[in-house]
């Protein structure tokens, strides 16, 4: 299997609903009950190909409905053929979310699922595997743990999904993924979904997939359609005060990103001192704590969720009013993934970023990626109107900003900015 992905014409079927995509009537009834009426672009393009048994490389941003693009075909094809469907995900939260998405559809066919994630006790997962699940959702490290203990035998896998593949590579899972792929049957259907198409993704497709079709919804660096963006240039010591002002002006749920775990803890304490409910989610938190934070945020128990980039991909929470980049991300790509947490499922959203006066270069990297200029707003006495360096001008189109060139809601004027330890394994 040494074939590069074949680019399809990417013309979606003309349809306003899920009928005509080849989906079985029983699943159509389930989707109707779930009030899934209009398929997303990635679902329109990927589902028919997946139902035909094709290998797929799907490129689409977060919040575009990728999970059901592979969940629906996997359930339908596993009804037709004996074997196991395996889904690999980069984080515990995303694995749990995928397991939940499979639930209602799989249960209707009497299919069992098993969710294998780190940070959770092994015995319940072993018991779930002994019940012979047809669908296994796992993080790479925990799957290898089970394989090395002979709890999971990969030779029954007939369908494989690599979800958020670029994120798994970013998190250093390439050796684990390669090891897992070497033990899976070669005669299988493989679907790979990613927000970007780095060289490593192409290598996986070339080495481990057979005649894969590339289905692309949005190119790398494309931001969500309905998100507006705004930038404040603020000194580090004034960030907390500016945050307090903004939390008083925005009254909905806020997802706030910190670059480090240590800073996330400090920010949560500050937000609570301001009188707002807040929780944190990062790798130092236990699985139970992370689950409480995420579920509490969804339910409204916590108004503000402070997160590191572990939460920037794959977490599906609708209705987030504001994404606030308290710290700019180290990697410009993560900016797109972060702000993709708002403006999901047809809702509007807003993204605000804090940049210190010496971060002009980081801002330009983001602007280069998204091919747009981030509008700079001022907040009286707290922010600056330019970076502490030579200005730069850009002929690029402005970021999607409803108040572009108009006084911002903060009273200022929007301007252009200056320019696991290695496990044992059987063989």
Q: So what's the overall shape? A: globular
- Describe the oligomeric state of these chains in a short phrase: single chain
* CATH architectural designation of the largest domain: 3-Layer(aba) Sandwich
Query: What amount of the residues lies in strands?
Result: 15-25%
Q: Count every beta strand, where a strand is a DSSP E run of 2 or more residues.
A: 15
Fraction in helix:
25-40%
Give the class-level CATH name of the largest domain: Alpha Beta
State the major sheet: 8 strands, parallel
Uncertain segments are: 9-14, 390-407, 411-427
Q: Mean pLDDT, nearest integer?
A: 84
SSE diagram, text form:
Elements lengths: L5 E2 L17 H9 L7 H11 L4 E4 L6 H15 L3 E5 L3 H17 L4 E4 L5 H9 L4 E4 L1 H9 L8 E6 L2 H6 L3 H10 L5 E6 L4 H10 L4 E4 L10 E8 L4 H11 L4 E4 L3 H13 L4 E4 L5 H13 L4 E4 L14 E4 L6 H8 L9 E7 L4 H11 L12 E2 L43
Helix pairs in contact: 2-3, 3-4, 6-8, 13-14
Structural overview:
This protein has 427 residues and is of the alpha/beta class. The protein has 2 domains: 6-216, Rossmann fold, CATH 3.40.50; 227-384, 3-Layer(aba) Sandwich (Rossmann fold). 36% of the residues lie in helices and 16% in strands. The protein contains 14 helices and 15 strands. It has helices spanning 25-33, 41-51, 66-80, 92-108, 122-130, 140-148, 165-170, 174-183, 199-208, 239-249, 261-273, 287-299, 332-339, 360-370, and strands at 6-7, 56-59, 84-88, 113-116, 135-138, 157-162, 189-194, 213-216, 227-234, 254-257, 278-281, 304-307, 322-325, 349-355, 383-384. It has an 8-stranded parallel sheet with strand order 1-8-2-7-6-3-5-4, with helices on both faces. The protein has a 7-stranded mixed sheet with strand order 11-12-10-13-14-9-15, with helices on both faces. Helix 3 (66-80) crosses helix 4, helix 6 (140-148) packs across helix 8 and helix 13 (332-339) packs across helix 14. The longest helix is centred in the first third of the chain and has 17 residues, at 92-108. The radius of gyration is 22 Å and the shape is globular. The two termini are 22 Å apart. Mean pLDDT is 84; it is low at 9-14, 390-407 and 411-427.
